[in-house]
UniProtKB/TrEMBL annotation:
Alphabetically ordered keywords of this record: Membrane, Transmembrane, Transmembrane helix
Span of domain DUF4340: 71-227
InterPro entries noted in UniProt: DUF4340
TM regions (residue ranges): 5-26
Native source species: Echinimonas agarilytica
Superkingdom as given in the UniProt entry: Bacteria
Protein name, UniProt field: DUF4340 domain-containing protein
Amino acid sequence: MKISIYHVTVIATILIVVALLFGLGYSEDSNPPVQEYDGLLFPDLDVNDIDKIVLSNIHETVFLNRDGVIWNVGDPVDYPAFQSKVQWFLADLEEAQRGQEVEVADDDLSRLMLADPLSDENQNTSAVKVEISSLSGGYKQSFILGKFDFPDNKPLISIVGERASARRYVRILGEEERVFLTSSSLMRAVPMTRKWINKGVVPIQAFKRISGYSDKGDEWALYRNSRFGKVMGEGSLKEFKADSEFLKNLSMFFEGGYISDVLPSHSLTEVMRTSNHRRFRVEDFDGTIHDFEIGNKTSLSKEHDPANALTDAVLTLTSKPIADNADYLAVTIRIHVPDSIQISDTQMGPFKGGAQRGFLIDEKSLLLILNLFNISEENSKRPHLEKSKS
C-alpha cells in the first residue's frame, strides 16, 4: 500500500505534537509554568517619593529612612547611610523588568525561597523581604526576592558572571499576589547593616598631635609643628623615627573608610569591658579632637548574604571583602569640635552633641596604632630612656 505525502505530513505533525505535549508535561514536574510578560516590575514606582525601605531575612532587619534628602540607617544603629548605595538600589527597583510571570503553588513557595522569611519555618532560606513606602505619597509595596535561576549558557557566564546573567524569582505581595522570573536580580537588597552604613564619616584632615596611654601606665605622643613638618616623639616614643611609609599609612587610616560595622549603643558595655584599655587622641591643626578607645576582639557574621552564593564577576555593593580569618576590635570614637568652627548637626551626623559611637574595625587597620602602644611599652622598660609626660 502506498502512503501519500499528505499522510506522511499528518503523521509527522501528530508525532511532533505528542512530543511537545510530553515535553511540557515533563517540564512541569521540575519548573513552574511561565508566561512572557513585558514591562516594569514596579510600573507605579516613583523613587523620588520613597522615604522608607525595610530589608529583612531570617537573621536581620535593616531600616533605611529618608530625612529630607539624607538617608539614614535606623534602629538599632541610627547612623548615616552610604547615600550612593541607596540611590543605586532605588535605581535598580525603578528599572527592574517583569520578565516572565510564573505560576507557583503554595507548597512550592518555600522551595523557591519565596515564603516570608519572617514567618518561614525553613531556617536555611535565603529569601529577602523588601518593603518600600512613601509616607507623603501613600505608595506602598512589599515583595520577596527568592531563589536564583542560573542559565546554562556557560559562555555568557564566563563573560559577565553569574550575578549579571542569573534570573531571580520575585513574589509581589498584596491583594493580588503574582510571581515573576526577572532578569533584574536586585542583588543590592542585602539585609546587613554594615552593607549600608557610610564608612568614611570620621576623616581627620591634618593631625597635629597623636597621644596615647593605656591602663598599664604607658604614655606616648607624636607631634609636628606644621602640616608638613617633621614628626617628633615625646614620652616613651621620644626616640621614635617616623619615615614616609609610616606617615602614608597613618594618613590613609585617618582619612576614614576603615570602619567595618557600627555597634548598637546597648552593646558597648560588654565589648568595651577589658583588662587593658588603650586610648589615643588625635588633634587636628584646626582644633578638632578625635578620642579613640580600643576594646575587645569580636567577629562579624557573614551568614545568609545572597552575594555569597554567586561569583565576584560583577560587584553588588562597594564594601571591603570580609576575610574568613579577620579579627575585629571594638572601638569607640568621640569627636570634639571647637566653637570657632561652624558645623551643623547634619554634618556631625552620629557624633553631634559630642556623642560617643561604637564601631568594629579590622585589627589590621589598627596595627599602626597598636604598634605604637607596643613600642611605648618596650621603651618604658628601658631605664636609660628619658620619659616626658604628654
